[in-house]
Amino acid sequence: MTYRFKARLSSEWVLEKPSGTVLPLSDVLRLLEAVDATGHIAGACKACGLSYRHGWGILRHAEKEFEVALIETSRRQGSKLTSFAQHLIWANRRVDARLTPTLESMASELQEELERLYPESQPRLRLHASHGFAVEGLMQLANGMDMLPLELRYRTAIEALASLDRAECDLAGFQVPVGEFELPILQRYSEWFDADRHVLIHLAVRNTGMFVKPDNPKGITSIADLVRGDVRFVNRQIGSSTRYLVELMLGQLDIDPSLIQGYDNSEFTHMAIAAHIASGMADVGIGVETAAWRCGLAFIPLAQERYFFAANRDNLDTPQMKRLLNLMNGEQYQAYVSQLVGYDATLLGEVQTLEEAFGAEFVSLLKTDA
């Protein structure tokens, strides 16, 4: 069955004047983004599907309302954004990065409710996972094809695995660092795993590290630099696996997190971390390399992480799961993940047991805890 529609929610911010009149900013921000990308107003208007006169009028009106210039132009160098305009578009990027996971999750819930109103509706796969680029691409591809759409809820790894244990989802996304921090992270997940009941679907290996400004003006090179008085840090949210990895790294160096400026400031996605730094609100944060690249930031590697979907073994033979596995092993999705900066898709789509993924010692630990 081809689904009838795709529910979407989007964010838009406006400026309300004391008089009560409202200035929508969506067209202004689109034009500013396009000017930043093309280097001239004519190209920006063309990219936005607007006439030059109309586009220029939108920008001039916005400058009048803000009482500050947004564009600097010269005959030789074209057009560029003023500092004020740059801060505007980075504020918008932070808003998008923060709200996108919530809006996508709410849209998925809305679509689920609407689909249930039709008598011929069929079961769909329920995916709970933290927001990531491979997951985002999978959702877009799966829901854009002639197959039942995935129902998505963005959750931390612990929340996702707990949902799988309670049969509230069919797939739970989680990541595990390669090397010395693997076992502590696995122990954190262990109460939700059952070696007899669960299997893993390998998604990718991805690079995780520190994001800093392109020229790294603070000379940040390692986790130890986070305690410096001139360094502002932005963290991931409480409960996230990335935040726990940071805690493990700090513990290894015997660093008290309370000494880190900004340790309690948090964001919910890798892109939000990157936008936070690119806009000058912090000097360093930790996330996946793809986000740093997309925001033009420098990246300092700290660890590699394997990302998996956990699933119930008995569900592997359902039609919905077979379609998803075929999609994950298909050329289009394989190519998509392979082109993500900092991702290795070598084992993408491979089904593994817990022992194959993490070794007999971990499986024995699960049986001991049980």
Assembly level: single chain
Give me the CATH architecture of the largest domain, please. Answer: 3-Layer(aba) Sandwich
Task: Tell me the helix content.
Answer: 40-55%
The third-level CATH topology of the largest domain is D-Maltodextrin-Binding Protein, domain 2
Task: Give the tally of β-strands.
Answer: 14
Biggest β-sheet, characterized? 10 strands, mixed
Describe the structure.
By secondary structure, the chain is α/β, with parallel strands linked by helices. The protein folds into two domains: 1-121, Winged helix-like DNA-binding domain superfamily/Winged helix DNA-binding domain (Arc Repressor Mutant, subunit A, Orthogonal Bundle); 123-369, D-Maltodextrin-Binding Protein, domain 2, CATH 3.40.190. The protein has helices at residues 26-38, 41-47, 52-66, 83-115, 133-143, 157-165, 182-189, 241-252, 270-278, 289-294, 319-328, 331-338, 354-358, 360-369, and strands at residues 14-16, 22-24, 71-74, 78-81, 126-129, 151-154, 171-177, 198-212, 233-236, 266-267, 284-288, 298-312, 343-344, 351-352. The strands form three sheets. Strands 5, 6, 7, 8, 9, 10, 11, 12, 13 and 14 form a ten-stranded mixed sheet that branches. Helix 8 links the parallel strand 9 and strand 10 (266-267). Helix 1 packs across helix 3 and helix 2 (41-47) crosses helix 3 (52-66). The protein is globular.
How do the helices and strands line up, and which of them pair or pack?
Elements lengths: L13 E3 L5 E3 L1 H13 L2 H7 L4 H15 L4 E4 L3 E4 L1 H33 L10 E4 L3 H11 L7 E4 L2 H9 L5 E7 L4 H8 L8 E15 L20 E4 L4 H12 L13 E2 L2 H9 L5 E5 H6 L3 E15 L6 H10 L2 H8 L4 E2 L6 E2 L1 H5 L1 H10 L1
Parallel strand pairs: 5-6, 5-7, 9-10, 9-11
Antiparallel strand pairs: 1-2, 3-4, 7-12, 8-11, 8-12, 8-13, 8-14
Helix pairs in contact: 1-2, 1-3, 2-3, 4-9
